[in-house]
Design brief:
With 356 residues, the chain is an all-alpha fold. It is 64% helix and 0% strand. The protein has a domain at 244-356. It contains 16 helices and no strands. Helix 3 packs parallel to helix 5 (109-119) and helix 11 packs parallel to helix 14 (280-287). The longest helix is centred in the last third of the chain and has 31 residues, at 325-355. The chain is globular, with a radius of gyration of 21 Å. The N and C termini lie far apart (58 Å).
């Protein structure tokens, strides 16, 4: 690493003020921050109250996503690798472009967005759609709000909703059967979509997939949402180290389970099945807990999780949509600033009353 540090030190004058490559200083700073922790404090939100800076935060999330990422490659083959590459390239290009124009640093947030986005997509989606969706999500969901730390909506979910509205046929038909064996479909670089239904679609018709298949991941579905085991492993790690809020996760899953229990007439087995199917677990651990688009206050996190859990259960059971997590989390994103403002104002008012 000393060699890399020396090379960066020698190249730095070219990118500093007055240097020939000053226009590309954000790109240089991003590379420097990737290899070495910056000595300065974070300039934009999310702000840390301890030594966990944005770089370490994003690195921790990526580590937690490793089980789901490996599971997606195991079940759907090596084709997932170019999907991840295209997602990073498209989203990263938009981030770098805006950082360069604004003369700001390239934030590490795109490392998480670029990894999460492919995991919430059908595995056989064409690569050009992956690129368009990720670029749209980063542009509209993040950069137009001012970049990482200022966005109201989760960028990955914005991109997924856009693809669902713009290319509904592809998004509803790009499912593939999971492979079998150690490498699954790993020898295939191209995968043909199959005319089949996801577990949630089958459940609408009264046909329930085996719970063991949902737990281990041998089912049709979005690339990173099929294996409940992989999601739980990464999610528990993320909550355990304090990066993801346990309040949001517990309130999301708890409210979803309670309302589902009511809607299904107290059938615990059916409720447990719905907890494992689709994107409930992935949303609860990795999407709803996004620090930028979720509340900062403890009370706000509880209400926020309840809003998402209730909305998910209602959409799944009382509408024509088989899923609901994506729309529920985006709805929660809208409520997040209002919840924080409400509880912060109440705390300030209480403190003033105590002083008086």
């Amino acid at each position: 690493m000393r060699l890399v540090a020396n090379l960066l030190d020698r190249a730095r004058p070219l990118f500093d003020e007055g240097g020939r490559l000053n226009f590309f200083k954000p790109v240089f700073d991003a590379g420097d921050a990737f290899f070495f922790s910056p000595a300065t404090a974070t300039a934009v939100a999310p702000h840390a109250r301890d030594p966990l800076d944005v770089k370490r935060y994003m690195t921790t999330v990526i580590i937690a996503l490793v089980p789901a990422t490996l599971a997606s490659i195991y079940f759907f083959g090596l084709r997932m690798i170019p999907v991840f590459i295209v997602s990073y390239a498209a989203g990263g290009a938009v981030e770098v472009l805006f950082a360069t124009v604004r003369k700001e640093e390239v934030n590490e947030g795109f490392l998480v967005t670029g990894l999460i986005f492919p995991l919430v997509l059908p595995p056989a989606l064409p690569l050009w759609m992956v690129a368009v969706g990720c670029a749209f999500g980063v542009l509209i969901g993040k950069e137009l709000f001012g970049g990482t730390g200022r966005n109201l909506f989760n960028a990955a979910l914005v991109g997924r909703v856009f693809l669902g509205l713009a290319y509904p046929k592809a998004m509803s038909g790009a499912w593939v059967e999971p492979g079998t064996g150690l490498l699954g479909r790993a020898t295939e670089l191209s995968v043909d979509a199959v005319a089949s239904a996801t577990p949630l679609a089958l459940a609408k018709a009264g046909e329930f997939t085996a719970t063991t298949d949902l737990f281990f991941g041998s089912v049709l579905g979005s690339a990173g949402e099929t294996s409940a085991l992989a999601i739980i492993l990464g999610g528990v790690f993320l909550v355990g180290v304090g990066v993801a809020s346990w309040r949001t996760t517990v309130s999301f899953l708890g409210s979803f389970a309670v309302l589902s229990l009511v809607l299904h007439g107290g059938d615990v087995g059916t409720v447990g099945w719905h907890m494992l199917a689709g994107g409930v677990l992935f949303g609860a651990f990795f999407m709803a807990t996004d620090p930028v688009t979720s509340p900062m206050t403890s009370a706000g996190k509880w209400i926020y999780g309840i809003v998402i859990g209730v909305a998910t259960a209602l959409i799944r059971n009382l509408t024509g949509y088989v899923e609901g997590v994506t729309f529920a989390i985006l709805l929660g994103n809208i409520f997040a600033p209002v919840l924080d403002e409400t509880f912060i104002a109440a705390s300030v008012r209480r403190l003033r009353e105590q002083k008086a």
